[in-house]
Amino acid sequence: MSNTVYTGILTADETNSFLLRSDGSRVLEENRIWDGYIKHWAGQNVCARLLPQKDYENGEPIVIIWPDILLANVDFMELYYNERLVKYWPSLFGHSAICVNGRIYNYSHLINENEVISIEEYFYRPALGEFGPSPSTGLFEILDDGTAYYDKFGRNFMRTIHVLRVEGINGSQMRSIFDRFLEMIHNTPVNPKKPEKWADFNLFTNSCSTLIKFGLRKYGFSKINGFLPRDVFVSAAYEILKYQNKENLSVSMYSMPQLKVPEAPYSKMSPITNPKNLFLNKKLPAYN
Questions:
Q1: How many CB atoms lie within 10 A of CB 23?
Q2: Which of 155, 179, 261, 280 is 20 to 30 A removed from 140 (C-alpha atoms)?
Q3: Is this structure's pTM higher than 0.70?
């Protein structure tokens, strides 16, 4: 599979969709482009490439498209609090992930979701093929013939995401911490009764948010508390903001509003469970 990245204006007419390049040529005209991209980014300059996964309807490689935004030329990390998915009860408390210099670390109770993933695949995969929800249930489903609908497309199409961005960190040091966590997970002996699960997953000690909390503590932000995603996010924001002058960091907060598509209902905020973090949340700067 080619890793060629195309850039151009996402263009759609009554019969076709494609990227219009600066030299007037068209690319991806023969490929299917997901309707969600057309809805949100038609007429905008975007990036695109082909994925190895196949579209179930035509058997062709899936096209992924994302905004044409350059990464800052600085070491950075971004902590993500993903709002909860209302159609899945395990998502009651939302989800945490962390990006270090463009590599997003995702931890989960499912072995195959413990991974390092690119920014575009984490946020912007289309709801096609294995990434989409089941057409019969609208949920995760694996059919009797093995056809998988993981309902795991771009997170920003599934949820609103709250972001704590920190510039000026030691990126290689932080990445080594989170790389070791992934190595530990994938070296955990498999439970033969539930081989798809991470055998040592624990909501209080080994979860998406607690591993990120422990990693940030190990890096040096030692007072971050909580075990649920929103609590860890609030605590991390409050503690890291205190470090910005002492450590010459640039800290900001913002949200990525959900890019609404028919395949996902609107997400919702999960609760803050620690009374201390309810108080700290009121002291954080307002953002949107």
A1: 6
A2: 179
A3: yes
167 Cα distance to chain centroid:
19
Rg (CA), the chain: 20
Could you read off the pLDDT tens digit of each residue along the chain, which spans 288 residues?
468 999 999 999 888 999 999 999 999 999 999 999 999 999 999 999 999 999 999 999 999 999 998 888 899 999 999 999 999 998 999 999 999 999 999 999 888 889 999 999 999 999 999 999 999 999 999 999 999 999 999 999 999 999 999 999 999 999 999 999 999 999 999 888 898 888 888 888 999 999 999 999 999 999 999 999 999 999 999 999 998 888 889 999 999 999 999 999 999 999 999 999 999 999 999 987
Query: Are 150 and 62 spatial neighbours (Cβ–Cβ below 8 Å)?
Result: no
- Tell me the C-alpha distance between 260 and 27, whole Å: 26
**Amino acid letter, 41:** W
Angle at 47 between CA 33 and CA 75, to 5 degrees: 140
Distances (CA, A) of 176 to 108, 170, 172, 195: 19, 10, 6, 27
Instruction: Return d(Cα 77, Cα 278) in angstroms, integer.
Output: 24
